[in-house]
């Protein structure tokens, strides 16, 4: 799977609600980089939202804080959906089951 | 935002912090941009996809851009790549030493696939011009 | 010693970059046509380039990433590619104007048609990039560019009524017989001449290559805060000279040669010699910077090895782009497009394209994961936000004004 | 992507049109003709004054021969170009005919003097320039009066 296959894909819940598109993904580094073995970067969650500019620039993720005007315009945080919530996936849409994450949030 | 359920360890935003970043090899040479990220899907349904490689080069870039421009780039890439394998250049994730303002690699990047174009331009054009081996100082 | 060289980088960029063919033409033409009533646009542009270059230099020092590297990194591959197309086109246009500018300046010394000089100038620029010790060159062109100070001396020598000059500059109004669209079109030209994007590509790439670090931030500020305003001061000198000599008698500046007249009238042959040396140094320095910037933008977008300090064979694709750009500039130049028109379009379009590169730099200058404690402070962000709004308005207004005024006719 | 590409193409076409349409187009009305006459007079006034200033610095020894020669050549070319374009504009009525005749005389005399200056400068006889340029002062005044008579642009 390539990252580009996830980006921009529509996300829909099993109840039929549209959540927006995939704008970013959270990777978690669970071991030192470059070490042998299975440690490395794992995809834990996808960031989903209706607008892409904020996450492209870093306002949505929170790493960019200023200037004030841009933060106000672009700072809306995306919704993070754990990889486990994904039920089905193809190039057009990703189907997520929100009940799979509720117990953890 | 509560990220606890995402697990311990350093968090990296794939698009913000990985995609489109500069690749730098161990000698400090600039060897390409991260044009795409390759994952290995888990066999076990509860597992998580793991990053196996960073893709760099025109093919991966074309794929990532998409649309008209992407198609044009892809066509250019196909023409350039007519005599070699069609896959975009891969940088194994094992070679990555650090993810910072650039992606630092622990290998010598000149032999990397991403530098095929660089080597071609160097050998076929630049080396033919007198003085190519001189530093501008 | 290293610090002195560092400051020279600033002066070269200020003189060869701030004062280039665009500033020479735009300031003289507006001075002749509008007197000092557009001086505010120069000031707005100077403060703008100071804000922009300071951010780009700081980001380059802290992150080791040059401007176009970050443009792609922040805007993504797709928007970045559109941006690359626009920025490269404008830098190319500027390169054509600068190469022709050097040829026009040389023509003033040796009365041989400038078209014959263009290929030679193109070759000389390429040779310098290919072979010459860059730090020497910086000093040489930095010092030669200082010759432009003669335009300020000339203004003093013309014994103007200072209070009247000041009054015109500080109470801007549209001169009778000129429409508002034309007035603002020329304001954009002046603004674009002061804030040309290649200056920032070159400056930030230089900072990365000279391996500036956090400790060089003071140096960065010294360069920017001293170098650019100095360039702006010379711009105003050009404007005032034209305002004094040309404006009252109805002369419009349509050729580079005319720009030397106020200095020649005030200071004679010595003054003329200085200003012609200044023309050559500033346009040649700018031709070098724009040619390199063509290579910087493309290489940094694709992540190729680039640099003026590494051996050409180690930055092969970068040198190929520079070579091809220069070749195209020479070919377009000798097809006898009016170099002054090319210059005018290049600065006006520069102004329109500024948000494309300013915006990503502003964002990265606020990214804590990158910049740590060196992110923009509240004061800087207030000014930077003001300029973001100004640049957006300018970008939106440029094309309609261009059409309404038939490009300032 | 497609939209951006199309927008860029449109922009380029518009810019090309602006550049392409700069040369004079035929005048359809009296106002149009009056405007074009005024533009021509302004352009020639600029060249005449430039030539006058240059002749002055040339004779006083305040400028180098090649420089003087370049400025005067460019002024001469500019006058010739303005004159050529103006000649090709069709005057729509009798008033325009009169305007055309009045400006035409000024253009002819300006062209003659500036050409003469160019020739003399090419020969390096800089000391003769100022005297030869004397007729330019009254010509400039007449051109200025022509411009003033045309009044502000409607």
Question: Which secondary structure elements does this structure contain, and how are they paired or packed?
Answer:
The complex is a heterotetramer of chains A (105), B (137), C (409) and D (154).
Chain A: H1 3-6, E1 10-13, E2 18-29, E3 41-49, H2 53-57, H3 68-74, E4 79-82, E5 86-89, E6 93-96, H4 99-102
Parallel strand pairs in A: 1-6
Antiparallel strand pairs in A: 1-2, 2-3, 3-4, 5-6
Chain B: E1 10-13, H1 14-18, E2 22-24, E3 30-33, E4 36-40, E5 50-56, H2 58-65, H3 67-80, E6 89-92, E7 96-99, E8 103-105, H4 116-124
Parallel strand pairs in B: 2-8
Antiparallel strand pairs in B: 2-3, 4-5, 5-6, 7-8
Chain D: H1 2-20, H2 30-60, H3 65-87, H4 94-122, H5 129-132, H6 136-150
Structural class of chain C: mainly alpha
Q: Enter the CATH topology name of chain C.
A: Amino acid/polyamine transporter I
- For CATH, the homologous superfamily of chain C is named as Amino acid/polyamine transporter I
* Chain pair sharing the greatest interface: C-D, 41 and 39 residues
> Total number of helical segments of chain C?
17
Number of domains of chain C: 1
Average pLDDT of chain B works out at 76
Would you identify the regions of chain B where 5 or more consecutive residues have pLDDT less than 50?
none
The assigned CATH architecture of chain B is: Roll
What percent of residues of chain B are in strands?
15-25%
Give the name of the CATH superfamily of chain B. PRC-barrel domain
Helix share, percent of chain C: over 70%
Helix content of chain B: 25-40%
CATH class of chain B: Mainly Beta
List descriptors.
B: 137 residues; alpha+beta; SH3 type barrels; 4-stranded mixed β-sheet; 26% helix; C: 409 residues; mainly alpha; Amino acid/polyamine transporter I; globular
Care to describe what's here?
The complex is a heterotetramer of chains A (105), B (137), C (409) and D (154). With 105 residues, chain A is α+β, with helices and mostly antiparallel strands. Chain A contains 4 helices and 6 strands. Chain A has a 6-stranded mixed sheet with strand order 4-3-2-1-6-5, with no helix packed on it. The relative contact order of chain A is 0.23. The model of chain A has no long low-confidence stretch (mean pLDDT 79). Chain B has 137 residues and is an alpha+beta fold. Chain B has 4 helices and 8 strands. In chain B, the strands form 2 sheets. A 4-stranded mixed sheet of chain B has the order 3-2-8-7, with no helix packed on it. Chain C has 409 residues and is mostly helical. Chain C has a single domain, classed as Amino acid/polyamine transporter I (Up-down Bundle), CATH 1.20.1740.10. Chain C contains 17 helices and no strands. Chain C has helices at residues 2-18, 21-34, 39-63, 67-107, 114-131, 134-145, 150-157, 162-170, 180-194, 197-209, 217-245, 256-259, 261-302, 316-334, 339-364, 368-371, 378-404. The longest helix of chain C has 42 residues, at 261-302. The radius of gyration of chain C is 20 Å and the shape is globular. The termini of chain C are far apart. The model of chain C has no long low-confidence stretch (mean pLDDT 88). Chain D has 154 residues and is an all-alpha fold. Chain D has a single domain, classed as IL-4 antagonist (De novo design) like domain (Four Helix Bundle (Hemerythrin (Met), subunit A)), CATH 1.20.120. Chain D contains 6 helices and no strands. In chain D, helix 2 (30-60) packs antiparallel against helix 3 (65-87) and helix 2 runs parallel beside helix 4. The chains are: A alpha+beta (105), B alpha+beta (137), C mainly alpha (409), D mainly alpha (154). The interface between C and D is large, with 41 and 39 residues.
């Amino acid at each position: 799977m390539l990252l580009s296959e996830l980006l921009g894909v529509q996300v829909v819940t099993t109840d039929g609600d549209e959540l927006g598109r995939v704008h970013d993904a959270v990777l978690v580094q669970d071991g030192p980089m470059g070490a042998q073995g299975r440690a490395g970067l794992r995809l834990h969650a996808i960031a989903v939202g209706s607008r892409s500019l904020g996450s492209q620039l870093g306002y949505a993720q929170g790493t960019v804080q200023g200037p004030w005007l841009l933060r106000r315009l672009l700072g809306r945080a995306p919704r993070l959906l754990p990889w486990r919530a994904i039920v089905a996936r193809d190039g057009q849409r990703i189907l997520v089951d929100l009940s799979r994450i509720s117990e953890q949030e | 935002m509560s990220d606890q359920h995402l697990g311990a360890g350093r968090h990296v935003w794939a698009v913000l912090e990985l995609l489109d970043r500069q690749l730098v090899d161990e000698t400090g040479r600039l060897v390409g941009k991260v044009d795409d990220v390759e994952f290995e899907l888990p066999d076990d349904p509860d597992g998580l996809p793991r990053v196996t490689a960073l893709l760099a080069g025109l093919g991966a870039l074309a794929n990532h851009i998409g649309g008209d421009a992407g198609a044009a780039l892809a066509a250019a890439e196909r023409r350039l790549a007519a005599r070699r394998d069609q896959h975009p250049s891969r940088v194994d994730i094992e070679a990555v030493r650090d993810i910072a303002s650039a992606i630092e690699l622990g290998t010598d990047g000149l032999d990397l696939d991403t530098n095929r174009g660089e080597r071609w331009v160097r050998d076929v054009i630049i080396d033919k011009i007198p003085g190519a081996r001189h530093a501008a100082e | 010693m290293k610090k002195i060289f560092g400051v020279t980088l600033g002066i070269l960029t200020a003189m060869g970059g701030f004062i280039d063919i665009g500033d020479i033409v735009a300031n003289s033409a507006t001075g002749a046509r509008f007197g000092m009533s557009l001086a505010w646009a120069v000031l707005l542009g100077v403060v703008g380039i100071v804000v922009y270059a300071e951010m780009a230099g700081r980001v380059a020092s802290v992150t080791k990433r040059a401007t176009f590297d970050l443009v792609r990194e922040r805007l993504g591959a797709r928007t970045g590619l559109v941006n690359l197309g626009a920025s490269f086109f404008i830098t190319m246009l500027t390169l054509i104007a600068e190469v022709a500018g050097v040829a026009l300046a040389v023509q003033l010394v040796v009365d041989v048609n400038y078209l014959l000089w263009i290929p030679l100038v193109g070759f000389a620029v390429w040779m310098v990039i290919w072979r010459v010790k860059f730090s020497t060159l910086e000093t040489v062109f930095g010092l030669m560019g200082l010759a432009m100070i003669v335009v300020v001396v000339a203004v003093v020598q013309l014994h103007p009524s200072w209070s009247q000059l000041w009054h015109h500059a500080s109470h801007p109004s549209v001169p009778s017989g000129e429409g508002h669209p034309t007035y603002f079109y020329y304001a954009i030209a002046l603004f674009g001449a002061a804030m040309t994007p290649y200056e920032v590509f070159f400056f930030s790439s230089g900072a990365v290559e000279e391996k500036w670090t956090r400790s060089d931030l003071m140096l960065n500020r010294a360069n920017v805060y001293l170098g650019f305003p100095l360039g702006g001061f010379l711009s105003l000198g050009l404007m005032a000279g034209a305002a004094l000599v040309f404006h009252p008698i109805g002369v419009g500046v349509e050729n580079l040669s005319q720009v030397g007249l106020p200095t020649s009238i005030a200071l004679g042959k010595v003054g003329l010699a200085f200003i012609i040396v200044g023309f050559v140094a500033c346009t040649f320095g700018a031709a070098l910077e724009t040619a390199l910037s063509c290579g910087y933008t493309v290489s940094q977008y694709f992540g190729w090895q680039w640099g003026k300090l590494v051996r050409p064979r180690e930055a092969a694709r970068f040198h190929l782009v520079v070579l091809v750009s220069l070749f195209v500039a020479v070919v377009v130049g000798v097809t006898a497009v009016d170099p002054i028109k090319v210059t005018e379009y290049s600065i006006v379009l520069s102004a329109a394209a500024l948000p494309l590169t300013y915006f990503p730099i502003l964002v990265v200058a606020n990214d804590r994961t990158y910049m740590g404690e060196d992110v923009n402070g509240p004061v800087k962000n207030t000014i930077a936000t003001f300029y973001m709004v100004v640049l957006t308005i300018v970008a939106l207004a440029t094309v309609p004004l261009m059409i309404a005024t038939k490009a300032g006719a | 992507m497609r939209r951006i590409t199309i927008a860029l193409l449109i922009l380029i076409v518009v810019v090309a049109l602006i550049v392409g349409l700069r040369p004079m187009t035929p005048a359809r009305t009296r106002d149009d003709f009056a405007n074009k006459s005024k533009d021509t007079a302004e352009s020639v006034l600029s060249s005449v004054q430039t030539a006058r200033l240059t002749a002055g610095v040339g004779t006083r020894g305040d400028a180098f021969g090649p420089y003087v020669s370049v400025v005067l050549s460019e002024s001469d070319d500019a006058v010739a170009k303005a004159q050529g374009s103006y000649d090709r504009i069709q005057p729509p009525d009798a008033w325009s005919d009169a305007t055309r005749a009045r400006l035409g005389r000024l253009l002819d005399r300006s062209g003659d003097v500036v050409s003469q200056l160019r020739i003399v400068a090419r020969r390096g006889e800089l000391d003769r320039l100022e005297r030869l340029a004397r007729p330019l002062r009254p010509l400039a005044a007449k051109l200025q009066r022509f411009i003033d008579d045309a009044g502000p642009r409607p």
